[in-house]
Amino acid sequence: MDEEIEVWEAARCTSAAPFLFPVYRASNGHAFQDGGMNHNNPVGLAVKEAPSLWTGRPKVDIVLSIGTGSAEGRIAEKNTLSQYAVHGWLKRCIDSFESKLDAERLWQEYHATLDEDGRRRHHRLNIKLSGTLPFMADTRAVDSMDDDTRRFFHDPGARRQLRSAAEALLASLFYICVESPTKLPLPDGIGFAFRAQIRCRLEQRYQRVLLDRLQSSGCGFLVHGRAVSINFEAHRCKLGKGESFRQDIQWQGQLRETFHICLVFRAEASAEEQPELDAPTAGGTTTLALKYEVSGSPHTWARLER
Where would I look for the motif DGA/G in this sequence (predicted)? Predict the structure, then answer.
């Protein structure tokens, strides 16, 4: 515990950007500088560290990377270190250092290494800035960046990204507790009947607000390919008695079979939306059915019983 530092000290450490703020010496005696010197987009580092925090989890449930803005052009030349090196190896070294600070490029390179399942679990929110990227200490650019941010929240594509990230975060609040399966004779051999409960990691006092949000979005669960509705009134009644959210579910399968448990959101949207599942309706709109894995999904019984 002697090595631990306060949260405000950690914030001060990560803000110690070169040329702007001095190196911070924390109460434990160590000196710290802005982590962006090596990991300006720390998403890859965070994913590598996750297994040490949550042992026994082969994959993270969700990754949300939030950027501070990107632009088509580089930082204005007068604001870069490379202006001081006209040519030669020094300029190449400085250019290489500056490229390490391009968080959006680092995200694209990291995202390209992910498989299809990994890409569904990763979300990136980043504002497109007009013009060239301003110097980090250029206070004159604040008004322009504020305008760019407001435009971002009105862009249909950005709103879809925000919605997808928010709904995936809500789905990750749910997890399952499974009972021991029982053997079940099937026409093609022996199978197993599984019983489980979907539970919520939120404190009980916040679960009513979550239920209201889910009901307004027409939510339900998808358990091993079968739709399971949520009885919102029954759950509210139980919450009123001091009980926590518990949704009983069951399905049939094999012990080594992989099964998915998803939270499904339904909402009206224009035909230009790109849902994972959809059912056409009248009036040029579509009823979206966007599904997101709950925490730990997909599952196998072999992994759950460990």
Answer: 34-36
The verdict on 213 and 291 lying in the same domain is yes
First-last CA distance in the chain: 31
Q: Which domain holds residue 139?
A: 42-154
Same domain, 12 and 92: no
- Could you tell me if 279 and 252 are in contact, meaning their C-beta atoms sit under 8 angstroms apart? no
Round to whole Å and give the CA distance between 132 and 301.
Answer: 52
* Sign of the four-CA dihedral 203, 204, 209, 215: positive
Summarised one tens digit per residue, pLDDT across range 124-139 is: 999 988 888 887 778 8
pLDDT in tens, 41-67: 888 888 888 888 877 666 789 999 998
Buried (b) or exposed (e) across 129-149, using 16+ Cβ within 10 A? beeebbeeeeeebeeebeebe
Distance, CA of 278 to CA of 276 (rounded, Å): 7
Residue 206's φ and ψ, nearest 5 degrees, are -100, -5
**194 φ/ψ angles, rounded to the nearest 5 degrees:** -110, 135
Same domain, 240 and 119: no
- The two three-digit tokens of residue 51, written as one number: 């297994």
**Is 160 domain-assigned?**
no
* pTM assigned to the model: 0.78
Are 116 and 191 within one domain? Answer: no
Say if residues 141 and 134 touch (Cβ distance below 8 Å).
yes
Residue type, 33: Q
Q: Which helix (H) or strand (E) holds 156?
A: helix 156-171
